[in-house]
Amino acid sequence: MPMHKAAMLAQTERRLIHNRTQAWLAEAKARGRKGGRPQTAGDDARVLMAKKMSKNKGISIGEICGTLKISRATYYRFLNIIE
How far apart (Å, rounded) are the C-alpha atoms in residues 52 and 60? Predict the structure, then answer.
């Protein structure tokens, strides 16, 4: 089989896989499913606790993050949710 025919078959197979994947995603979306990692930053109790603790100037950001078991990035994301 010449090389260009093999490439053509590979490209056709790739398109089929792509189309099947897109169809599956559309069906999943119609059923109310969505992809991606679930977010944990929306936990209201921890967001409110972060807000209360951030008002106390005697507590460092590191201590707040350690107490709530969150990263600094999540802490700042919480503050953006609050404001």
Answer: 13
- Residue 69, phi then psi, degrees to nearest 5: 60, 50
Residues 1 and 30 in one domain: yes
DSSP state of 32: T
Q: Which domain holds residue 51?
A: 44-82
Distance CA 80, CA 83 (A): 5
pLDDT digits (tens, 9 = 90+) for 13-45: 999 999 999 999 999 999 998 887 776 655 678
Q: Measuring CA to CA, which residue among 50, 52, 48 is closest to residue 71?
A: 50
pTM of model > 0.85: no
